[in-house]
# Entry
Amino acid sequence: MKKLLLGFLFLTACARPDYINPVSKKSAQGQTDKCALKLANSQLCSSIQWTSGPQTPAESEFILKFWNETSASENGPYVDPSSTLSVILWMPSMGHGSSPVKIDKIETGVYRVHRVFFIMPGDWEVRVFLKNGPTIVDQATESLQL
# Structure
């Protein structure tokens, strides 16, 4: 009876929970998905690497990298988006965002996003936009729970 109970617990403990965000999940080998944040219209992939946080209420910071979906990988070579980069923090359950972030270019295709403030605990989205003027050309979103 104990073996049957242990077998049942083992099998149910291995299930992937539904609340894990597929954008940020890791594969069984510990590698991130090939294209963590896909900007399909621009044929770009991007990734977020947190250097501080994500946390509340203190400042968070991350590195945002872009590469060509078909000819590069998360290790490079990196490319600059052809449109203007914008990042917005959004709290979908509350219907509001946070203060504007600051974006500094570090090198080709690599940007430091700082002054990132998640003003309260809860569900958040980091929304990455590529724009031509006010027109959104492409976008990708990473969901977080703080």
User: Anything to note?
Assistant: DSSP finds one helix and nine strands in the chain. The helical segments are 2-13. The two ends are 41 Å apart (CA to CA).
